Amino acid sequence: MKDNIFTNMDRGKSVFKDKSPLSHKFLPEQLPHRDEQITKIAKYWIDALDNVTPSDVTIYGKTGTGKTAAAKFAQKQLIEAAQDNKIFINVEYIRCTDYTTEYQVLAQLCQRLGRDVPYRGWTKGEIINTFREVLNQEIDGKKLILIIILDEIDILLEKDGDGLLYTLTRTENVSVLSISNYLDFKKFIKPRVMSSLRDKEIVFPPYRADQLADILNERSEMSFNENVLNEDVIPLCSAMAAKEEGDARYALDLLSTAGDIADENDSSEILGDYVIAAKNRIEHNKVTDIINTLPTQQQRVLESVLILTQNKEEISSGKLYETYKEVSKGDSVTYRRIFDFINELEMLGIISTNTVSRGRGKGRTNIIKLQCEEDLVDKTLNSL
Q: What is the pTM of this model?
């Protein structure tokens, strides 16, 4: 029998001592520059320590502004405080990219609270009633207070509607903390649900370059061996991430990937040039992943933008729609729906739009431009 391939593999020298602090999932002991937001969450949740159901809370902010980390930090702190005060509190984190329907979320919550339920097959009424039965349990005469963190809630709302929020906001002893990247996600919530949500809102601003540098300095001490970081690496990562709307995740990805590139080059030092190479690698992978996971109709819209770009034509929404209909070969959506696709592609950073005045009496029009490398978009679309 052959030896395991990993047994004699030479791992070589590495600039890393522990990669985990550079992961998005890593929760540090302290969250630099988020004390104000964490304190607000705590103020809204502190009622739970008096056995009172807290207010619902909504957290807004761009990707990489510390929303999830802050919520999980507050979750950990509240659970510790509840144990010290012998209060019956549970805080459950649900990522709505993993559980995308009301049924899935309620089934998962039941499982975590000790009730074995099937992940399909029951009626909506059966799963809701079971969930509420689980919440009726008591310890020392006190009912359970359940706080549910719904991360990326906009994904669930867009896919499945507001049924989950309707159920949760009408269930006793339940508080919801919603997290979204988009300020307008409540457009998916009907007035009847909004009236019972009555949430407190917390906005997470983008990190500045100096704040990102503080985060990277703290994480780098945990992640890298001594004296491996060139002095321009963290300022460069911070500046690049600040341009990406203060995205700490992007800053961490840059630093981690620059370390990988140093190892690939058998370098004992992480150089500024490796950060530039990391940026190119990350952007290439990001664009490819986004395009591969786009719905078919959005891929067709993007293909239409690419065709017009390659033809060096100015791309108005009207011209885009005509090209899109040719690309779709009869399987096309309405002109109005195209604007939703344009907005979504713009939010992903793949295209940009700019409203241009055509002069007196000629109105205004949207001009669309591709924001990614033509060759990369072309290659990715052709590989689908």
A: 0.79
